[in-house]
């Protein structure tokens, strides 16, 4: 039988192919992103300018001005492929953090470097450990490879490092740790992490995801980059999506031992970071003023948020990120009520927290509007 457009439309051929896709791929629960403003505007016929999105931990200050300037200059060059090795951005990272060029892998967002780590070190039959309520990408990456994900129960919503250590088997090849974690906002202290790294067999890669590092007060930041010398199995990942305000560009990086990074770079798409992003990130890295303002605004926003939640009598998980998860009971309903009022937050049922919503810090006026909408939603 020949394949006609009609059979394709009927879906029979595609259905056969899909049935033959690996079971571990078919079992993936897709990542649920925050709802875009334009989508909500379309669905509920709302004015997009009246919608606020506090759903994806984006930077309410917008883009670093130095990055904006660099992007405008880079626009003239986009007919050419980007520098596949990202020399200028890597040089900026070298200057900023004192690592060597071969210790850096660049990614299309830090999700991309997490993907590279998984593809370089995991395979069917081996195990990756991550915590309950940890960032969803760890499970998705593990499953994409066909490796076995080992989810370790959380302790007070945070990573239980002792239990994660106890979960190590002969098959363990990787441990994912988010610090602070999203969506719980919990933080592991440097001493706890160091103890874990010392106790873990050195052939197991530890991916330490520090997407929110720039929001931490100095005394709570781990010297994770300094630890690289001591722990060749450690991979530290950072992103430009949060405090640097470049989520839409997709840039992140991993720092690690050069042999580890070399393997990650082998599975990398040749031009995974585009030229606009490379230029913007290199400039943003030295926009200390912008990062400082972002983290100060976040601290003030966090105080405003938790005060508001307390006033409403809601419990929340104390957070070290630019977001906070709070308990509302019927979260799906409250989420919908907030949407009707033009406020987008994030349901986190997919993280095993069905009674919770996560809200990002915003501008003072946005947080005020969110709290007002939440009060009204709860009264419905
Ligand atoms: C937001 C976030 C990231 C960043 O992802 P990008 O791909 O860099 O945008 C990474 N890890 C965690 C835990 C996050 O919350």
Describe how the helices and strands are arranged.
Elements: H1 5-10, H2 12-20, H3 23-26, H4 37-44, E1 52-53, H5 65-74, H6 87-97, E2 104-107, H7 110-121, E3 127-131, H8 137-145, E4 148-152, H9 161-166, E5 172-178, H10 190-199, E6 205-209, H11 224-227, E7 234-239, E8 252-256, H12 258-266, H13 275-284, H14 288-311, E9 316-317, E10 323-327, H15 331-340, E11 343-344, E12 346-347, E13 356-360, H16 364-379
Parallel strand pairs: 1-11, 3-4, 3-5, 5-6, 6-7
Antiparallel strand pairs: 2-8, 7-8, 9-10, 10-13, 12-13
The protein binds pyridoxal-5'-phosphate.
Residues 57, 109-111, 135, 178, 182, 209, 211, 239, 241-242, 247, 252 line the site of pyridoxal-5'-phosphate.
Q: What's the gist of this structure?
A:
With 380 residues, the protein is α/β, with parallel strands linked by helices. The chain is 42% helix and 14% strand.
């Amino acid at each position: 039988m020949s394949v006609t457009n009609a059979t394709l439309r009927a879906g029979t051929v595609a259905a056969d192919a899909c049935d033959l896709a690996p079971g571990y791929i078919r079992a993936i629960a897709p990542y649920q992103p925050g709802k875009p403003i334009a989508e909500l505007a379309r669905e509920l016929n709302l004015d997009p300018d009246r919608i606020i999105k506090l759903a994806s931990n984006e930077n309410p200050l917008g883009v670093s001005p130095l990055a904006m300037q660099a992007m405008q200059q880079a626009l003239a060059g986009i007919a050419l492929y980007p520098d596949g090795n990202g020399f200028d951005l890597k040089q900026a990272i070298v200057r900023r953090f004192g690592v060597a060029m071969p210790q850096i892998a660049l990614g299309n967002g830090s999700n991309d470097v997490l993907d590279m780590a998984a593809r370089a070190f995991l395979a069917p039959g081996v195990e990756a450990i991550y915590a309950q309520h940890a960032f969803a990408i760890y499970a998705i990456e593990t499953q994409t490879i066909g490796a076995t994900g080992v989810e370790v129960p959380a302790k007070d919503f945070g990573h239980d490092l002792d239990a994660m250590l106890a979960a190590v088997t002969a098959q363990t090849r990787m441990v994912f740790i988010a610090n602070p974690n999203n969506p719980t906002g919990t933080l592991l202290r440097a001493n706890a992490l160091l103890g874990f790294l010392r106790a873990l067999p050195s052939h197991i890669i530890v991916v330490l995801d520090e997407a929110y590092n720039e929001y931490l007060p100095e005394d709570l930041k781990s010297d994770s980059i300094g630890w690289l010398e001591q722990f060749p199995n450690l991979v530290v990942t950072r992103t430009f999506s949060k405090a640097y305000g470049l989520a839409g560009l997709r840039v992140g990086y991993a720092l690690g031992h050069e042999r580890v990074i070399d393997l990650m770079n082998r599975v990398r798409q040749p031009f995974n970071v585009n030229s606009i992003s490379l230029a913007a990130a290199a400039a943003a890295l030295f926009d200390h003023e912008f990062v400082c303002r972002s983290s100060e605004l976040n601290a003030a926003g966090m105080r405003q948020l938790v005060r508001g939640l307390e006033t409403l009598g809601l419990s929340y998980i104390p957070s070290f990120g630019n977001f906070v998860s709070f308990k509302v009971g019927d979260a799906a309903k409250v989420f919908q009520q907030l949407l009707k009022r033009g406020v987008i937050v994030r349901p986190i049922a997919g993280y095993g927290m069905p009674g919770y919503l996560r809200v990002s810090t915003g501008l003072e006026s946005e947080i005020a509007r969110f709290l007002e909408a939440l009060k009204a939603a709860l009264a419905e």
